[in-house]
Amino acid sequence: ITLSNEGTKVLPDDMKPVALLCIGCALIISSVLLLLKSIWKSCYKTSKLPRKSTIVLFFEFLVAMGAAILTIVAMPHLDIVTNVTILNGVAVLSALLQVITQCSAKERNRFLLPSIFAFILILLGYALFLYLYITKHPTDIKMIIWVGLAVGASFLVSFNWWENYLRLISKSSSSVFLKNLCKDLTKCQNMLNILTSLLRIAVTACVLGAFVPLDKMDWNIVTSIPSRETKIIAIIIGVQLISSALCHWFSLVACKMHALRRCFILPLYLASLAVMVLFIVPVIVYYQDYRTSLNGTAINFTADIGLLTGSAVSWWLGLLLATLHLWYLNMDRIQRTQDLFIRRLYEGAFIEQSLLLNTRFDILSKDRKNKVVDTLMVYLCATMWHETYDEMMNIIISIFRLDKYRPKTDQKYTDFTFETHIYFDDAFKDVKGNGRGRHLNIYAQHLVEILTEVYGIFTNIDDNFFNKKQQIPDQKIIRTPYGGRLVVIMPHGNIILVHFKDKELIRQKKRWSQVMYLYYLLGWKLMKKYYTRWQKGEDEAELRKLCMFLQKEKHNTYILALDGDTDFQPAAVMLLIDRLKMYPGVGAACGRIHPTGSGPAVWFQKFEYAVSHWLQKTAEHVIGCVLCSPGCFSLFRAAALMDDNVMKKYSTKSTEASQYIQYDQGEDRWLCTLLLKQGWRVEYNAAADAYTNAPEDFGELYNQRRRWGPSTMANVVDLLGSTSTISKRNRSMSKPFMLYQLFAIASSILAPATICLMIAGSFTFLFQMDASIALVLAVIPPIIYLVLCFKLKSETQIKIAGLLSIMYAFLMLVVTLSIIGSMVKENTILTPSSIFVIAISSIYIITAIMHPQEIQLIFHGLIYILAIPSAYLLLSIYSMVNMNNVSWGTRETKPAAGAVTPEPSTPQTRTQKGRYQVDTKKSLLQQKIGNDLRELRNKVTFAYFMLNALWLVATFTLQLSAAVSITIPILDFNLKPTGKNIQIDPIGFMFITGFATLVGIQFLTMFYHRIYTLIHYVAFLDTEPKEEKNEPKEAYLSGKKVLKLLLLLDLLL
């Protein structure tokens, strides 16, 4: 604006259109950024067309017209001090709407008077401004026009934040039109942003294009600017555009980090003052040089400076009073952007005013401090089976740690309370003797011992070494219809309930334990009080309130799913709670799972888990939804689990072969599939760390992945088959995201053939053999292993896979070293294989650097590279061929010595004959299911390996045919041709391009996710109450006063 002023000496008068063009760029850059972001969201999120867009577009037209006229037409003719201060006057309509909003509110508010004074002060500033310029130039018609346009345009710009107050006015108004308009603005935000951005760009371009000819300037000068002026303009506009965008983003970060006052409000208040001081102080110091004019506008310094200062102070105080409510704004951690800023758009021409006025306005009543905060209820639900002593110790310590972190006996913690339920599968065994019946087995006894030991540790944690230790009293297991139950009150008042399940009384396995606690905690415990009141037949109004309270409690009740060996910190739980608390549409959130253990199998899994969380889960979180929230550490919302076709369908017993694969082999992924189909969002929080034991044995790892592989494929195919329905129901699952998942699952399916081609290329490169012979040699071992898997037992299959994995590992090591050697020998890295290896390695290294606490895992990537053929070729074959095996595969033990054996056959009674018939039916049903599973296995295996064979043949044929191949010259390190070419087949080129795009998307989304994870973590550290280090012993020993065992004789459900 200064460069376009008539009195500036930097640019000649004929070059003013260039400065005006830069002003236009500054105005529209925010609209361009919003347009791109909204298009991105419309592609990867579900967007709806607005029904009432006319009034919105009308206001946007006024605002765009006002901003363009103010900055392009009027301000270049005013002095620089006025230009700096008049921008604060755009709060005039906001101050007026604040008065109207607070007067229409039904409660007494605190900021009515500041809003009234703000409105009066801003009007006073305009009055002084008009008086100054009109009395100074009473005969200058043009100056009066510029001043009038400046005032009128300022009023038009002040319409920019009308949505901030419409929301509150509509609540207190009975107008249906206003309420529907607010709903339309919320639901159709993406499409409205696209339309308004295009409108703003068009209006600004029209004003700019029309004003230049009207002011007798020529556009042709834009193409003939000298280099000096070009550099000046480029630097100024570049700094303005970049600094405005960064200011907007850092303001958002400051608010999310709970640094609202010191890092957002105060700097924005001082920005205008700082600029005024920078320009006014030189005028005072060098008064003699500025006696006749101030940047082109002549003024009487002694007389006019008072009016100018008065208008500037009035505008600034008006802005301050109009935004005084921000100092008392209540915010949560990681406050949603749409709840923090009403509009996504910022104004590049007046960034500080737009940020302050765009922040959410609330009615703050005088008794707001007495507002009751809802207390969340979190149920920790752990499933156990055959965990070792050390594994169970991990989770029990974690639970007691959370008890200390959120003590129930301390009333100052009101954010959430929790209750722990442990469901122990197959916890009983038969004991020989005179009617001794069934007692706890060794695993369940270990859990009781661990509870005693950990309770003693946490009770005496602050005692001196030689003091008498406080131990848990003797415990008794109370018989229940499903087995037994034990209740323990932890030292700080929270409860642990251990449910010991007897497999002869109730179904075992993890999914049925989950169904058990879902129906007990949600279907009975949560619904009981509301169902009892409903049965009493209360009136309709009370029932309506009852339904509202029920929905609220369902949204505020969470279930933290845990495995029996999970180790976690309380902070991890808090970070997951934040995600569900802030975003009502989130049905589940999972944390970062770290496998623990030792040995090559665990080292492989550590890097595999790291890559899947670093890249795959972050990409799903950013552009869509996480498809699997692992049951070892995930937080679920009760309202999501109780939604239609979630809990009810999850409790369905498998009756078909495909259901055994999808329902029982990957229950965590299937539960997430049900949530996604109902429209709920599943998220990932990288800062919520949890540790779980990973299979250390090669056979256990293969058996675990034998369950996971087919179930993952079944659930993803299920989602892809319902793309149209899901994209309409779930706002986070768009068709482009489903296309991303389609390519990901296709890459996974074609992995065996891709590995074979890679091995064939390795043979060709190492031994200089013919490509056909190399392919035959590469395919023979997998084919032999495939045939053997159909004939041999699973244990033998795993042993053979282990031997082949060792052979392939040596081959991968030689190939890797050979690729490096070839790059050195040929003095080039610009071959497809070299580029691919370097690019993937660079992505993994940079990703590891972005995760500094886990950077050491990059060294485990060496094991991962060596195990690629085993993981993506042999394991795929093993998983497909053994799909009909629906056993768990891990933690399985043989019957203990001395176990009760079946009694000898005796003459059967009528009851025994009935039981025999039932057992016979079960046996026939199991036999039928076994046959169905084998038939399904045969069909899926045939289709799976037929696709791989077709891909293998097509790719290899195109590689041999030079006529249809793509020729790429090989370049040296100086990017000069070496005279050699490399041939790439079109299919291979498309696959490499697609894979590179897939990895590129994951890499970019990783950066985005890391930044917002850092914001969340910093906000958590800044707002979470600090734990006192030196608490008195009574704080820890008070638990012994309330410790007792509750002997409960109750019926489940």
From TrEMBL:
It is a multi-pass membrane protein. Residues 894-913 are annotated as: Disordered. It comes from the Eukaryota. Keywords: Cell membrane, Coiled coil, Glycoprotein, Glycosyltransferase, Membrane, Transferase, Transmembrane, Transmembrane helix. GO terms for biological process: chitin biosynthetic process. One of its GO terms (molecular function) is chitin synthase activity. Its main location: membrane. The chain crosses the membrane at residues 18-36, 56-74, 80-99, 111-131, 143-162, 192-212, 232-252, 264-287, 307-329, 737-760, 766-788, 800-823, 829-850, 862-881, 942-975, 987-1008. Its EC number is 2.4.1.16. It holds the Pfam family Chitin_synth_2. It catalyses: [(1->4)-N-acetyl-beta-D-glucosaminyl](n) + UDP-N-acetyl-alpha-D-glucosamine = [(1->4)-N-acetyl-beta-D-glucosaminyl](n+1) + UDP + H(+). It is an enzyme of class 2 (transferase). One of its GO terms (cellular component) is plasma membrane. InterPro entries: Chitin_synth, Nucleotide-diphossugar_trans. It is found in: Cell membrane. Belongs to the chitin synthase family. Class IV subfamily. PANTHER family: CHITIN SYNTHASE. This is chitin synthase. It comes from Sander lucioperca.
